[in-house]
From TrEMBL:
The chain crosses the membrane at residues 20-42, 83-110, 130-155, 206-227, 247-270. This is ABC transporter permease. It comes from Rhodovibrio salinarum. The keyword Endoplasmic reticulum does not apply. Pfam families: BPD_transp_1 (PF00528). It is found in: Cell membrane. Residues 81-270 form the ABC transmembrane type-1 domain. Keywords: Cell membrane, Membrane, Transmembrane, Transmembrane helix, Transport.
């Protein structure tokens, strides 16, 4: 029977939303909108000193208190969302694009190309992620392109291994064999036969890697190698206000809660997106 392409729909991907998944998606969407609209939502400029007191309490004027310099924490958290969400999303997209593309090519090509690329990326993946990020950023300098590129390099080997494992299984199925017998090119096999059958699990893996990258980015910023002043992501906000931790300063608590809410909600979302591979030869 001749293989035919079917459209990619949520039903085909096996996507099912429940209350937990909807809650996670709502929080993720909230932080995405905050990242986009931060300049419109923030009551003060990101670097403006607006309070005479440092580590000021929550009040009607400062909803999240003030930081160690008297800056509005709410404004800095809102602006910080742009960097935390933006850098993490860009790095995750780049890492998954590189990893998934190479994984599918390796699965179809096989032979020396598959072996050599797999061993190289295994060696790269064996380097501790935070240590690798520290060395690269400290050597080159911290900037948005460097942070995005470094995080993408760190997590592309994992995306490669995941996509390759899926693609190897799909590559042995009957509809791929039929397409190969028809004389279809490798590019057709990859983008028209294999990718539509692994896109669901890849999207779930995308969400998981986004969480990992948020945490690594926050760790780099906490060590002073992330987004540089006067701008800051959430990890940098925690780091610069760590002196207020013994006092329970809101300037430490709220950015920490922001990191936790984003990572937990992404996990809630991807844990409630059950996906499965379906044979498209029917």
């Amino acid at each position: 029977m001749i293989a035919r392409r079917l459209p990619i729909t949520p039903a085909r991907l096996g996507i099912r939303f429940n209350a937990v998944g909807i809650t996670g998606a709502t929080i993720v969407l909230f932080w995405g909108l905050v990242a986009l609209l931060a300049p419109l939502l923030a009551p003060y400029s990101v670097g403006a000193i607006v309070d005479q007191d440092f580590f000021g309490p929550v009040s009607s004027q400062f909803w999240m208190g003030s930081d160690y310099l008297g800056r509005d924490v709410l404004s800095r958290v809102l602006y910080g969302a742009r960097f935390t969400v933006g850098i993490s999303l860009a790095a995750t997209t780049l890492a998954c694009f590189i990893g998934v593309t190479l994984g599918m090519i390796a699965a179809v090509a096989g032979g020396w190309f598959d072996t050599g690329l797999s061993r190289f990326l295994d060696a790269l993946n064996s380097i501790p992620h935070l240590m690798f990020g520290l060395v690269v950023v400290a050597a080159i300098g911290s900037s948005l392109p460097v942070l995005i590129g470094t995080l993408a390099v760190i997590y592309s080997p994992g995306a490669y291994r995941f996509a390759r494992a899926l693609a190897v299984n799909i590559n042995t199925m009957d509809f791929v064999t039929v397409a190969r017998a028809r004389g279809e090119k490798t590019s057709y096999l990859i983008w028209s036969e294999i990718l539509p059958n692994i896109v669901g699990p890849v999207l779930a893996d995308f969400g998981l890697r986004f969480v990992f990258i948020v945490l690594v980015l926050s760790g780099l910023s906490f060590l002073g190698l992330g987004v540089q002043p006067p701008y800051a992501d959430w990890g940098a906000i925690v780091k610069e206000n760590i002196g207020g931790l013994p006092f329970g300063a809101p300037a430490v608590i709220f950015p920490s809660l922001a990191i936790a809410s984003l990572t937990i909600s992404v996990n809630m979302l991807i844990d409630n997106l059950p996906v499965k591979i379906r044979d498209r030869s029917a």
